Write the structure tokens for this entry.
Amino acid sequence: MTDHPDDLVISRLLAVPRAKVWRAWAEPERLAQWWAPSPWKTDVKAFEFRAGGAFHTYMTGPDGGESDNPGCFLEVTPMERIVTTSTLTGGWRPATPWLAITAVITLADEAGGTRYVARVMHKDDADRRQHEEMGFFDGWGTCITQLEDYAKGL
């Protein structure tokens, strides 16, 4: 994928084999263990891991904060790529999200570990800036670290 000014991108080399990273992503009970920045908790309400399948997470914080995130898997290429969006729900049903995004997660073998790239696309500069100001790099970065730590134990 080429760079686009409305994208936010994190690329990290994880010290975990790709099969373990994939397993942590591909099983909802495992995803719930690392998906939200600690001490937040994740309830996976829907997880149909296929193109067109529902993907719905609900996060709660220790201070009573909530984040309800229904969406849809657009693409699932085993061991390589996961694409989700908040603009559709399961079965390709249109949605009106609080923040319209499409996230592309790619995995590749590198240096005995996994190159993990999260590219989050926004409809415009204003949404990208809003997401960045909300703490995108800290939040998503924390979750990627949690993913790596969790996957090491698999």
The first helix runs from residue 18 to 26.
